[in-house]
Amino acid sequence: xxxxxxxxxxxxxxxxxxxxxxxxxxxxxxxxxxxxxxxxxxxxxxxxxxxxxxxxxxxxxxxxxxxxxxxxxxxxxxxxxxxxxxxxxxxxxxxxxxxxxxxxxxxxxxxxxxxxxxxxxxxxxxxxxxxxxxxxxxxxxxxxxxxxxxxxxxxxxxxxxxxxxxxxxxxxxxxxxxxxxxxxxxxxxxxxxxxxxxxxxxxxxxxxxxxxxxxxxxxxxxxxxxxxxxxxxxxxxxxxxxxxxxxxxxxxxxxxxxxxxxxxxxxxxxxxxxxxxxxxxxxxxxxxxxxxxxxxxxxxxxxxxxxxxxxxxxxxxxxxxxxxxxxxxxxxxxxxxxxxxxxxxxxxxxxxxxxxxxxxxxxxxxxxxxxxxxxxxxxxxxxxxxxxxxxxxxxxxxxxxxxxxxxxxxxxxxxxxxxxxxxxxxxxxxxxxxxxxxxxxxxxxxxxxxxxxxxxxxxxxxxxxxxxxxxxxxxxxxxxxxxxxxxxxxxxxxxxxxxxxxxxxxxxxxxxxxxxxxxxxxxxxxxxxxxxxxxxxxxxxxxxxxxxxxxxxxxxxxxxxxxxxxxxxxxxxxxxxxxxxxxxxxxxxxxxxxxxxxxxxxxxxxxxxxxxxxxxxxxxxxxxxxxxxxxxxxxxxxxxxxxxxxxxxxxxx
Length: 653
Ligand code: GCW
Known about the structure:
Strand content: 5-15%
Strand order of the largest sheet: 6-11-12-13-14-15-16-17
CATH topology of the largest domain: TIM Barrel
CATH superfamily of the largest domain: Glycosidases
Largest sheet: 8 strands, parallel, barrel
Shape: globular
Number of domains: 3
Bound molecules: 4-O-methyl-beta-D-glucopyranuronic acid
Radius of gyration: 25 Å
Mean pLDDT: 97
CATH architecture of the largest domain: Alpha-Beta Barrel
Number of helices: 21
CATH class of the largest domain: Alpha Beta
């Protein structure tokens, strides 16, 4: 069996002990009914002559008087929105559509007893974005290098094993339930790197995709598929995959028609093209707008969308060539195409210009394409943030990204790379569940406070948590992203991870590789000069005032200094410290904080189930070990390069 994550039976206690009536029809309303029945059955009560909770579609006829009163005040709810109020001893959830009723139900679960206490004024909830999606980097076959799940740190895939569909519908259904309970309504079921077997999900393996879609549908989740741009050639035997070729266009039209005949509510395609070896329109001298529009046109008759990734850069660059800057690539490729994409083409942009580092500036692409639908891609799977061996609560980082003023309102949806696998705890590290939960909540409301989200997650996952447990969890998780940042690469410079696995320190691991991920440390200084004045000019991709803030050595925020500037070790930060002393101080502090996290977890002993306790403790042991390794390698490296001793005389090897 698997861990209940944020839906343990106890979280349904308040609901299950009430008498509930459900008004409305349809498959999702049936799901709501079955959730209520299950909660009632588990609590062994729920009887009584009157009702305490009304869950109603606003179109249901007749509506009980309490719900009609809410309808009179609620305003436009939309298909996924709902209103909640409590008056005279009855709680009402009124939804604008069946999915809204499901979200309203899970909101009642979140509220617990407080949904049934004192009167509550009407509150309305509507998702900020219509699509809230997770992308699985799950392979169907076990890939010789990447395994079953690329960058997966939670065991195998819940969908695929060794080339076959696993067919574990109970697990997939349980997954759908978890996703719905945090507001997620779409998934991509396979890796964006589409290998030979995965390509066939579009054609003769479509039945597997249908099985997943059928299983997730009762929880309001639509399935999308990663496809290879070369499909007409590799699957259809055409001589070309040129997006402007008529034969290619009809091939995609026919393939897409078959998909919708099989899965009428299919979400659409996800494409990684001309990126890290995946095929794309460049081979035919066509643009990425041509490529995306080809698929958008095939999907349009059915209301489908194509998510087209902007992660396009030269991964075969020469480290000797200082003029090529990977950070520039997405903007250079895509900003000139603004306005050329179809309405149902969504450009999916990683949140930073590089690649999911613990600290990056926000991608300038997001502010540069006002006439294009954009999705911002976040990475719940902790590729560069401790691989689910380290506790690293990412919502504070994501919130910073989403609140960055030039990008606010510039993107239409959020996507996260999934951190889920067939591990009993879903995410390897039980505390990493909070990242998936928080992603869903932020995709629903990007302004939500990450620490309040964490409290929601704590209350659901550990129902009625004793205060010491809540405090220990906050002590461990609230600042865990910044702690991770402290003991890894300094001041926004990024990478310094072991090539390939991306786990653990290797300061020069990427310094002379073709991947474009350099720090340029020498005996005098460190950092990448990305200024317009003397560097790669990347700062010029930002709108004012950020183009000037980042350009200026004085104004550039400390945490991004080495992303934008190459400075001497003695350069004084806004904090008052020198760069070299900052490196030493943060690395000693970060490793110490990791040890404190482990100490705090001891307080949770006996307050959480033993299997959760043990799993987290094991992982904290590894985090402490790894943080020390990072500390010692990074400090030794910079001490040896610079020759500058630590002002506090601590041990550097
Ligand atoms: O972060 C990098 C990963 C690759 C991944 C790629 C991408 C799916 O190291 O494993 O490939 O990004 O986002 O496409």
